[in-house]
Amino acid sequence: MSTVSTFDFHVTSECSQECAYCWGPQGIPEVDTATAIAIIDRIAGGGASRIVFTGGDPLQRKDIGDLIEHAAGIGLEVAVSTTGDKLTRRFLDQHVSAIDLISLPLDGATEEVSRRTKLAGHFDAVVAALDLLEDFPSIDVKVATPVTRHNIEDLPNIVALLDERAARLPGRLFYNVFQAFPRSMDPKVPWPEMLVSDAEFAAIRKRIESRSHPYRINWLSHQTLDRLYVMVFPDGSLTVPSGSEFRNYGQFLEVDDIDALLRRSDFDAPKHRLHAEGWSRPS
Questions:
Q1: What is the CATH number of the domain that holds 139?
Q2: Residue 55, pLDDT score
Q3: Which pLDDT belongs to residue 106?
Q4: CB of 213 within 8 A of CB of 162?
Q5: How far apart are CA 62 and CA 52, in angstroms?
Q6: Under 8 Å between Cβ of 146 and 178
Q7: How much helix, strand and coil, in percent to the nearest 5, is found in the chain?
Q8: How far apart (Å, rounded) are the C-alpha atoms in residues 98 and 79?
Q9: Is residue 76 a contact partner of residue 42, using CB atoms and an 8 Å limit?
Q10: H helices within the chain, ranges in order?
Q11: In the chain, how many domains are there?
């Protein structure tokens, strides 16, 4: 598995949000703790350096603390991609030494804009999570915004909010700006009402980059996002998204040679490695 630097382990389908653009698995049962730990062991044993616990919202899974601690204990860098709703000081106090990065979604600079794609109160939940993380200097923070027609004009305001926040966060801050992508397990997503064009995405990037910012901004077009991820779904199956499809390759623990399988798939290993290097811990 040396071709894969980072595995996204979707440990649950459960989530407090109902985002139309979400790539996360929906309605898929979870493997038990022992199987999840075996998956983590195989990820580490195959040469990957990092695991992203995601979902759904991984904090909805009761044993997530045990999974995080196990992953860190066998040498993996650990990221937790959460909606922020369930992030608490107690959780951070318990697992601060095992977590390298917390990722939070931010769909708008105000509750009004956020509610166009998130449920009521989510903006305040993310702000509260950022407040909490000011007290944990060893944890890097990544904020992610999926750019849609609902929030593209608000992007400069989100960046202004993060400009102010960057000075208060003691760890590193990253900002990932995604061009919303027509990939979802929900067949009813109204993509024409949501997607921004390549030209619109390039124009907002140029506008934001007209001045400097005290943190790294990663601009992820739909071309960049495609064939970038290797996912293990909640049921333990190996999935590599390609185009609008989630291509499933069976149970992760039952695949004899994952590198060989990925070479036969659409997975873009060089692009994956380049992307993964973006937030590696300094040596």
A1: 3.20.20.70
A2: 95
A3: 98
A4: yes
A5: 17
A6: yes
A7: 35, 20, 45
A8: 9
A9: no
A10: 33-45, 64-73, 89-95, 111-114, 122-133, 155-166, 198-208, 222-225, 258-264, 269-276
A11: 1
- Domain of 162 in residue numbering reads as 6-277
Kindly list the distances between the CA atom of residue 81 and the CA atoms of 1, 24, 87, 283, in Å, as whole numbers in the listed order.
22, 11, 11, 23
* Token output for 191: 């993509």
pTM of whole model > 0.85? yes
Task: Answer yes or no: is 152 within a domain.
Answer: yes
- Please, are residues 183 and 140 in contact by the beta-carbon 8 Å criterion? no
Residue with tokens 């030209």: 199
How confident is the model over 8-48, as pLDDT tens digits? 999 999 999 988 888 889 899 999 999 999 999 999 999 99
Tell me which amino acid residue 100 is.
Answer: D
The one-letter amino acid code at 53 reads F
Q: Is the peptide bond before 56 cis (omega within 30 degrees of 0)?
A: yes
Sign of the four-CA dihedral 160, 136, 177, 128: negative
Which helix (H) or strand (E) element contains residue 54?
A: strand 50-54
Residue 283 lies in a domain: no
Instruction: Answer with the residue of higher pLDDT: 70 or 23.
Output: 70
Amino acid at 40: I
**Confidence at residue 133, expressed as pLDDT on a 0 to 100 scale:** 98
Domain-embedded: residue 1:
no
Residue 222, in any domain of the structure: yes
Q: What pLDDT is attached to residue 123?
A: 98
